Amino acid sequence: MKWFERSLKESENGTSEIRLLEPPVLYEQTQKIIRKIEDFYQSDFIAYWGSNSSSMSTSDVIVLNEILKKKKQNGQLFLFVKSPGGSGKVALRMIHLLRSFYKRIVVLAPVECASAATMLALGADVIKMGPLSYLTAIDTSVTHDLSPVDADDDLVSVSQNELDRVLKLWNVERREKEQNPYKDLYKYIHPLVFGAVDRASSLSIKLTNEILGYHMEDEEKINSISNHLNAEYPAHGYPITAREAAALGLNIETLEEEIHEHLIELNNLYSEMAQRAYTDYDEYRYHDNQIMAILESEDRQIFYQRNKDMIWRKEDKQWISANDQSSWIKVEKDQKRPFYIR
């Protein structure tokens, strides 16, 4: 059965039951590409890949450490990063861990390297980028328990940039007698949300400065890069190409054409592994088996796979999970087993 096909199998009592869809594990194909890249650079290589629905989390650090166990402390690492982002604190911890193994780190960013993944890239001595590459702004948004809610009653995120722009517009358009914008703003955004956003913005700048400090000594340059990435872009997802990244003061190099092709092929294989693997039970229930994140080096691949039922609760108008057995899976040659993190 192909991974994307839905099939029914007959049980012993003659009733039909649904066979859960399983995404492919393309270990042999990805390992061939990784060996080619390591042969090209004559250095260690690690892939850190996240799907568009993933988020950098604390468990990623533990998995990275497991990947590094087989590595000898070496002078140089080439790190392939593709991720939509997540926790900036995780980016700092990953850089700290990698720096305990390698004196020089080169990030290979052939495609999306966004938000907290940009923070991770900032910890490298060199960032190699190609025609599809982009970094993004790293300003922080907060989804607070007291945040405003949208039409579906979901909490919405609030960023420092958004608040600054609202205050700026108020100052431009306010009437002469109006002196304080907060009286009106507090009707829509709780005061504690303002405080949480300000705190998160300060944290983002602190994290960025600390990460850059692993390979930069010029404090003025560190502050300039950090402040620009945190405050100077009109959108969090603004694509920063190689040209603009170099203008900011980052050490940008052009990705070699051969390596670019290998990394695009590797990205395509990971994308195939991470395609949606949903099995519908009925219109209100389905099973999710999607692979979300992959870390891989020579002879070892570890990926995070969802394994849970999703149920639509009518009274709350939201999906809830059940029977959740999601976990990291470690693949080594002919072995495939769970890698538990709690």
Automatic annotation (TrEMBL):
<protein>
    <recommendedName>
        <fullName>Serine dehydrogenase proteinase</fullName>
    </recommendedName>
</protein>
<dbReference type="InterPro" id="IPR029045">
    <property type="entry name" value="ClpP/crotonase-like_dom_sf"/>
</dbReference>
<dbReference type="GO" id="GO:0016020">
    <property type="term" value="C:membrane"/>
</dbReference>
<dbReference type="InterPro" id="IPR002825">
    <property type="entry name" value="Pept_S49_ser-pept_pro"/>
</dbReference>
<keyword id="KW-0175">Coiled coil</keyword>
<feature type="coiled-coil region">
    <location>
        <begin position="245"/>
        <end position="272"/>
    </location>
</feature>
